[in-house]
């Protein structure tokens, strides 16, 4: 685990493309660029559907549907009794389909991709990650044929878009969204450390209560937690600044509901103390090692979606943020780490951990390490109406 500001990039030139190919989210992003993107670089969201049709799996994979059991209040995955299933498709057949699509070469403009357009495409596939019908099946299929996507991974990794995706925390320019008034996303009045203690007490109580309702293997809790970022992150977490943009969070990378619709949001620019201790997460191994060092059992809250996504029965672990605070001031998850790790079941002790629901390039702080805070401006709008950066800027009022 690298806790310093230096050496946060992947160790060799091939590492970025291998990390992209190894992650479910990374492969989903690459699939959107199999066909030629339009002039605005909006990814082709139909690529996954096309893959299923080409493999004879139908328009919408039935194995991604859920049914609610009214007797015990759980969801269970429903598999149709007839029809071809993703698990029945030979790996060579998947490779053949992807190989033919890659040979067309429509994706080669990826080498020119800039970060603004890449982040929009990433937001499109990261939003509702794991909750679209067939997502886990798509991860399995693309994982069997990941090598066929290597040219796309190499092009994306070498593009201007990915130049900073494994870079360490940008300490001179961090952006924080603060909701004006009380409620989720408001800055804690009693400081970050108090917010950590409060959130951890609440999460441990929910975990204990959830263990008493844990369903048997093959079923999943209704409304179970799926995200890895802690509850205190709203109002305390930061993301790196990008020129000309108030914050990357406004395009909503995951189904968090933040910022809330039609709410005044203050955007702050922070400078971080050079001595702040930051754990850099660049890929799956870094996240696994962090959780293994500071494990906290979250099976009672996270068993549902993670079990369904990974076919693992747990137990499940996330960082013990209070224990971690004795060694680190914050944890920075790079854009590249999100692409490489989201949705993977990573072994930790007698169980597993999953990284998901974390805004790319976000840092969760357990201690206030800012040396200066400056308000950049205010934003008011509905994130559900955001399609591109022009929509973000239309609701942005910078301060002079």
Give a verbal description of the structure:
With 400 residues, the protein is α+β, with helices and mostly antiparallel strands. Helices cover 32% and strands 17% of the residues. The protein has 13 helices and 15 strands. It has helices at 15-22, 24-32, 47-54, 91-103, 115-126, 135-144, 150-158, 192-211, 284-293, 299-310, 321-324, 335-341, 389-394, and strands at residues 66-69, 74-77, 174-179, 219-221, 238-240, 263-272, 278-281, 295-297, 317-319, 330-333, 346-348, 351-353, 362-365, 370-381, 396-398. Strands 7-10-13-5-3-6-14-15 form an eight-stranded mixed β-sheet. The two termini are 41 Å apart.
Brief rundown of the structure:
The chain is of the alpha+beta class and 400 residues long. Helix content is 32%, strand content 17%. The strands form 4 sheets. An 8-stranded mixed beta sheet has the order 7-10-13-5-3-6-14-15. Strands 1-2-4 form a 3-stranded antiparallel beta sheet. A two-stranded antiparallel sheet has the order 8-9.
**For the largest beta sheet, what order do the strands appear in spatially?**
7-10-13-5-3-6-14-15
Rough outline: globular
Number of strands: 15
What's the N-to-C terminus distance?
A: 41 Å
The low-pLDDT segments are: 2-7, 41-45, 60-71
Which key terms come to mind for this protein?
eight-stranded mixed beta sheet; 17% strand; alpha+beta; 15 strands; 400 residues
